[in-house]
Design brief:
globular, mainly alpha
């Protein structure tokens, strides 16, 4: 009987993996069609390797390199499309941001536990809630190879978007009262409400900034999700005590920031290029809707405490959610790099056409 469960489980995982790979491999066609290009079946896929992606983390970097990253997004510092890199992304400075925040949190802990200073508690709540989500946000800021979104815009989206998404969530909760139990129905309803609230806010900011690239959508989504995560975690401390900050800080590596980043990228994939995302896009674009449903599913699994199980099962659930979430982030990164190649290919074709007319 046990062997049958294992076999059925592996068959199901194989089925799911096959479906995911099929969608993943078709992203080239989706991007090309969205940009109005003919599908090139010989187009080489962009390779994504964890070891390569984070290979620059432990290398020495100068202050000038950091300055170039954080002054991006202005008229003077946004590169033209020809200068945008389609090489594998290698973010690194987000780890420096995390180390600064982690060091700050450690010093606040010393104030509290060594010297008994209760004045350190508000700082611990804020820095503890901020450390992981904001560091992830900085990673997505680095990954935005177009460098067309400024740090000021990111911070506006992080603060205003994070709080606005909580306000929209509360509005939805008024319409759909949530029961505080551990049932799958309750977890699903929470997932639907919170992910839809973030989606609405992400769409508002993407449309307001007139953004059109996958990396832009991922960044704006991450900003809204990070803000949501920080303010939500801070609120939970008042309800469940300071110990909450220790668990939620590390759990943030695979929750709201990641889910919202996935949705942000999917919004770009689902909208007409150089046009705002509309209500019609929301209900008629299956690829966007699939990613939204996956985000809701991940949120539901994260919140659901399976009856009759213990801590080991809960940790396993969380690990599954984190792995799937990050896999989809790499799918978005891959899609974003392919989009750069497609757009740059369009420029080459247009240049050749103009050249041909001149000769004639």
């Amino acid at each position: 009987m046990k062997s049958k469960w294992y076999n059925d489980g592996f068959q199901f995982l194989d089925f799911v993996w096959t479906g995911v790979r099929r969608n993943y491999d078709n992203l080239d066609d989706t991007i090309a069609k969205r940009l109005g290009e003919k599908v090139d079946e010989t187009n080489e896929q962009v390779e994504i390797h964890l070891s390569k992606m984070f290979s620059s983390v432990f290398k020495w970097h100068t202050k000038d390199e950091a300055d170039r990253i954080f002054i991006a997004g202005t008229k003077a510092t946004t590169p033209g499309l020809r200068k945008v890199s389609s090489r594998p992304v290698k973010p690194c400075f987000f780890t420096r941001v995390f180390l600064v925040l982690a060091l700050s949190f450690t010093m606040l802990m010393l104030l509290l536990y060594l010297f008994g200073s209760d004045k350190a508690i508000p700082g611990m709540i804020f820095i503890g809630s901020l450390a992981v989500p904001f560091s992830l946000l900085m990673m997505f800021f680095e990954i935005n190879v177009y460098q067309n979104v400024s740090f000021l815009q990111v911070m506006q989206t992080f603060l205003v978007g994070g709080i606005l998404s909580l306000l929209v969530t509360m509005l939805f909760y008024l319409l759909l009262p949530i029961q505080t139990n551990i049932s799958i129905e309750s977890a699903l309803l929470v997932g639907v409400v919170e992910e839809l609230a973030k989606t609405v806010v992400i769409i508002l900011f993407i449309n307001a900034y007139k953004l059109n690239y996958i990396f832009n959508g991922v960044l704006i989504g991450a900003a809204v999700g990070a803000g949501f995560s920080v303010f939500e975690s801070s609120g939970y401390v008042s309800e469940y005590g300071l110990v909450t900050i220790y668990t939620r800080s590390f759990q943030a590596i695979g929750t709201h920031t990641i889910w919202a980043a996935i949705i942000g990228g999917a919004i770009i994939l689902g909208k007409v290029r150089k046009k705002p995302f509309t209500l019609r896009d929301f209900v008629t674009k299956p690829r966007f809707f699939v990613f939204l449903l996956i985000a809701i599913g991940l949120h539901t699994l994260w919140d659901w405490d399976i009856p009759g199980t213990g801590l080991a099962t809960s940790i396993t659930e969380e690990l599954i959610v984190v792995v799937i979430g990050w896999f989809l982030i790499f799918v978005m990164i891959d899609a974003g790099l392919r989009e750069v190649r497609t757009l740059q290919g369009q420029l080459i074709v247009k240049k050749k056409k103009r050249g041909g007319h001149k000769v004639g």
